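Re: weekly structure request thread

Next one in the queue (251 aa):
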Amino acid sequence: MAQGSGIEWTESTWNPVTGCTKISPGCKYCYAEVMAERLRAMGQRNYVNGFALTLQPHMLELPLKWRKPQTIFVNSMSDLFHANVPLAYIHKVFDVMKRASWHRFQVLTKRADRLLELSPRLEWAPNIWTGVSVENDKYRHRVDDLRRIGAQVKFLSLEPLLGPLCDLDLTDIDWVIVGGESGHKARPMDLLWVTDLRDQCLRAGVPFFFKQWGGKNKKRAGRVLEGRTWAEMPVAPTVPAPEERSELPAA
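Done, posted below.
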């Protein structure tokens, strides 16, 4: 919703949709659900419905007001490709992302099947990065769906990582994020799962970003992996904000 974010792999968040429903084990202890209920208790108007899926049309054009180019996580509090988000509304979100061409938008979904279904009907501007979440081996099919969509930058969020993901096909994947679950009920993540994914990325030449170990105290656990921080990002062109562009002289 606001400029500025504590999420390590982005700079700001934008929530033209809030709320969601759970579809796989990675959703069990959803941070967004807890936060939405907290914001409702605080009287935040966008969360009067708590974690029930709600369109927020008054938030649609917010990124157009942010003139400084930045990386923006779209719907950190929801899933743009939820079945209850109408295609017409998704088109409006994509239109804003195209118009705000000086930003990089990160769209992340667990609903890879709907993403793939709608992909031919969406306009994939170069600044729209798109990824899928995969928490264990049962859901690796989401990677295959992602590979077939029209986005120019495709990424994986393997968080919360709940099991090994051996021999991933990283063909046409531009970025991999790995992270453990956080919170007082956090499920453990094995070091070998993480190092294997890092090594797969190294072999494939795919940028690797290790977000966190997680656990009950994620700050104390940190994000150092075998002596270093991994914060690689995909290389993507940036477009200056309108006031930064030089105007062509009149003919």
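Residues 12-236 form one domain. The first helix runs from residue 31 to 41.
Next request, please.
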